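Many introductory courses stop at the sequence. We go one step further.
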Amino acid sequence: MTIIHANYNGLKCKFNNQTCKIMTHGQDYLFYEKGTMMTSKSPLKSYTVCTVATKNYVFLIPIESMGTFLIVNTFSKHQFFDGVSVPEGVKNLINNSNSAEELENSLKALLDEDDKYVYQISELSSFKFKGILGKHTLRMSRSKMHWASISPTGKGLSKEMRTYYGQ
């Protein structure tokens, strides 16, 4: 079944005599093509990530990572979709999902439920935004020794994310 994706609140579509809900950015999910992530699991690495957030989960899909090992810088590009960039592949997953739950399941499968990239909000001990000079960073913790921080790249996007979660 093909799902039509649009950014209109409350819109429904008809396809093959079935009513389907159109997912809405800012209501059902957030999607950011680019952001920066740091994590306690890899403290010497900085990740460029594609971010998808729902009311229940935050997914950080790595695009590339850069780190330091002794005096050598390391650089890796990540590939999850054949012949398509990570942001384009994630957009396709969003467009082919009928609900936030279906999108969450697709992203969990894509990321093998790796706890470095998949954060179920209800299981976190801390989920806080910190801001300075208009830049808001989300810090998520499972424990004091297991955390990640994410900041979407782009004017106003981190504030949009903070508002989405009511903080």
